[in-house]
Amino acid sequence: MSRHLKALPALGLLVLLAYLPYLPVELPGLLPGRVNGPGSMQLLAICLTMAGIALSYDVVFGRTGLLSFGHALFVAAGSYLTAIGMASLGLPLPLAALLALVGTTALALVVGGIALRVGGIAFAMVTLAFAQAASIIVLRNPGDVTGGEEGRSLDRDLMPDLLLGVNNAPYRYWLALAFVAVAWLAVAWLSRTRAGHAMAAVRENEARAAVLGFDVYRAKLIAVVVAAFLGGLGGVVHAVVLGGSNPHLTTAEFTLSLLVMVVLGGAGSRWGAVLGGFLYTYADSRLVNLSGSSLLESLPGALGNVLSQPLFVLGTFFVIVVYFAPTGLTGLGHRVLRRERVE
Amino acid sequence: MSDVVLLVVTGLGLGALYFLAASGLSLIYGLMGVLNFAHGSFMVAGAYAGWLTMTGLPDSLGVGVRMAVAIAVALAVGALIGFVVEAVLIRPLYRRHIQQVLVTVGLSLTAVAAVQGVWGSDAHPLDKPAWLAATTDLAGAEVPNDRFLFIAAALLLFGGLLALLRFTRLGLVIRAGVENRTMVEALGINVQRTFSVVFAIGGAAAGLAGLLAGVYANSVSPLQGGSMLIYAFIVVVIGGMGSLTGTAVAAVAVGLVQQLANYYAASGVGDLSVVLLLAVVLLVRPASMQGAH
Amino acid sequence: MTTTTTTSARRQEAQPILRVEDLHVRYGGSHVLQGVSFDVPATGVTALLGRNGVGKTTTLKAVLGLAPRSGGVALAGRDVTRWSVTRTVREGVGYVPEDREVFGGLTVEENLRLVGGDVGVDAPIVGELFPDLVRRRAQKAGTLSGGQQQMVALARVLLRDNRLLLVDEPTKGLAPKLVTEVADVLARVAQTTPILLVEQNLPVVRRIADTVVVLDAGQVVHRGPAEELVSDPDLTRELLGVSMRREARQ
Predict the structure, then answer these.
(1) pLDDT exceeding 90 applies to what percent of chain A?
(2) Structural domains in chain C plus CATH codes
(3) Measured between alpha carbons, how far is B224 from B96 in angstroms, rounded to an integer?
(4) How far apart are CA A141 and CA A133, in angstroms?
(5) Which among C64, C95, C114 is the top mutation candidate for probing chain B, defined by the most B β-carbons within 10 Å of its own β-carbon?
(6) Could you say which of A42, A79, A138, A219 has the lowest number of CB atoms within 10 Å?
(7) Does residue A183 carry a pLDDT above 60?
């Protein structure tokens, strides 16, 4: 199959998703109200944003094999620097976003440069510590720039009207969709470059990659920086879609959820990361609605309460996937397809 | 002067809590190469087991007695959970380190959510005996007594673990396994059995750390384990991953730095300087940090 | 086991202690062993030879279960391929790895007790074969010389009752005097226990080996009596890429 043919399913899906804001049908149980209603559009926008952010995380985790627990740091940097750039420096959104991207990339160079001095599990711990430092700063609210536990709203006066208000939810949805498309193309392009080949070699076997003449440290640093750039971009979009920055973005729990998304969908695969990010976010938000459902009410008290915790359900599901479908949902899908073809 | 004494003792108390949490992590990592994210859940389990014991026992027993029973229960629950997690979740994924980490990540999410589901996400106040809440005059400083309890518990654990490692057959196998686990197996020694024991010991220490962190905060809450865990991770990395003495030194250093910087600079600076300390250690001696696996 | 003792004892003469059949090892993308088959007789030293990187160490590891293997490995007629490493060793396969791999942070005594349990350097065999280790019992193994570490690595496997020893390049990097000492020890051990020996030092092979198996590119290219190979310079050069004379002068 040629490269162009391979891109067809993704392109078709993109066109379909881009058309959703014109679709006035209801999908009861699946989406709140009409597909193109503001509730559904907002939900889908968040899901898409997280899908793109999961894709950015997969650059380090799935493609380079680096277990980073600090990716939240870069997403949060993108989000917070946008909010701060607008509120504290009075920059319009595009300039604030640019500032956020430059800042995030610089941060990634510093953090990656230090953390990559160690490998394996130590790298995971060090990235976690850096993310934790960011979390502490954000919560302590130095000089009142981060807003502490409240987070920081985007200054509405500096926002383009098109991205504001309930009725403009479709524009935010399209913005999120565009972000996913950009991240998708960037990752596709990256995987064809020499740096991308180096990352794949590092993932398979670091010692052998070095023997093959790849600069391992450089390949890893590029992976961290590219992932951070895309994650920072995701943070900008996240801030626009949600109208501000939230300290939850800085928590270790957020990074862990990115890891869960990528593994659920299938690490090292664009479809896997995007699917995992989308479905996890969707499930996380819809499972909350389940908590009031009659099914759970009929269960004895404690069990119903536990099952009404989205993270309990997702965490359990995640453990099951790690055991029984280590290649994630897309890997599972591939296996089923292959078996059908064989039979 | 009294300020310094107070800060040093409270810093040591905090370091003691970190050591209780980190010693198990370090041993588990050193021997098995498993970064145990569920360790925070072990702490929460110990804290809640202790809290439930405290509230479940009749008031007539007195706070001190109930606290003593609660500590025993926290140790036992931590050990049991550690043992079960190793046997059920970790062992089947033998040597697949990334997947083992992922499973403990999933478990940490699930456990916290389960605790929130059953007992709510709010903090529950934890009683403590009057003598523990009181202070002792030490060179002019009014030092809260619970800090001494933390330090004593950490010293007991440190001494006990050192003795275990030095004088027992199990300790010999653990020390050899931390150095080169493959070779231990290639000598016909069943390392798997030591994994269960190490997880149980780590779980017991974490359970105790969880309850004592509750004593420190005067309450137990589902998220306490997670924030402790991150400092415990930092301690493990600074301590050299897998070295018990290194972990003890790092725990003290982190506790002291945090307390002193928080006091003399500004609140929050201490927490940041701990991360800075980690960065400096990494830059100065990265090679010793690679760990055994 | 006990019910078949009489019959298996009678067959012992003919039956090889180890039979390797169509053994394959794949690491990631590379196919290191490509169908290796050979027998190790129940007595004497079998030397596994070949140029660097042909899969000698991998073969030993695969026999023990330390490398991901497929194919047949049988110890005295029993299939071991489903056994764990630990079980294989407990069933009597002793392993002395390349580069010794002693526990550097442990004392000599502790290194031996790991296998010997209650007895370390006080075991009779240690005093008999490795008197130097008795004197150094309290020394950290990491501070020993290469030769002394090799003695620790040999001593600790001998504390178990072995039916077969896998010994990987025991003389590598040792001074000539120590090479002789190690060869002496191996010759003594081989009187009671068969050894599968990976060895680059041809004089050592000539001295102690009875049978040779030569590997090249993951396959067996020669099997036969040791004498036949080492006394034929052309064959040695062809199979191992070394000349016996040059090797002897080193």
Answers:
(1) 35
(2) 2-100+162-249 (3.40.50.300)
(3) 29
(4) 13
(5) C114
(6) A42
(7) yes
Backbone angles phi, psi at C128, to 5 degrees: -75, -45
The tokens describing B90, both together, are 């970790």
- In 3D, which of B184, B227, B189 has the Cα closest to residue B39? B227
Q: What's the structural domain count of chain B?
A: 1
CA distance linking residue C9 with residue B133, whole number of Å: 75
Q: Which position has the token pair 């380079």?
A: A64
Residue B103 and residue A319: Cβ atoms within 8 Å? yes
CATH number of the CATH domain containing B103: 1.10.3470
Chains adjacent to C (≥3 CB pairs closer than 8 angstroms): A, B
| pLDDT, tens digit (0-9, with 9 covering 90-100), for C202-230 | 889 999 999 999 998 888 999 989 888 88
> Which residues in chain C land under pLDDT 50?
1-12, 243-250
User: Cα angle vertex B105, ends B100, B111, to 5°?
Assistant: 120
Residues of C in contact with A204 (CB under 8 A): 28-29
> What's at A91, amino acid-wise?
L
Tally Cβ neighbours within 10 Å of residue C47.
25
In angstroms, what separates the C-alpha of C209 from chain B's closest C-alpha?
24
Taking alpha carbons only, the member of A318, A184, A323, A183 closest to residue A256 is: A318
| Domain encompassing residue B169 | 2-289
Top residue of B100, B102, B103, B273 to mutate, by most chain A CBs within 10 Å, is B102
What contacts A59, CB < 8 A, 6 or more positions away? A187, A190, A199, A223, A226, A227, A230
In this structure, what DSSP letter does residue A88 have?
A: T
Nearest chain C residue to A205, by CA = C28
CB-CB under 8 Å, A124 with B101: yes
Please give the ipTM for the structure prediction: 0.85
Contact between residue A53 and residue A238 where contact means Cβ atoms under 8 Å apart: yes
Domain residue extents for chain A: 18-252
Average pLDDT score, chain A: 85
CB of B239 closer than 8 Å to CB of B15: no
The CA-atom distances, in angstroms, between C218 and each of C24, C79, C213 are 9, 22, 12
Joined tokens for residue C94: 């002793």
d(C-alpha C13, C-alpha C20), whole Å:
18
Report strand pairing: C45-49 vs C93-96: unpaired
Residues A260-290: pLDDT tens digits?
899 888 888 888 999 999 999 998 888 776 6
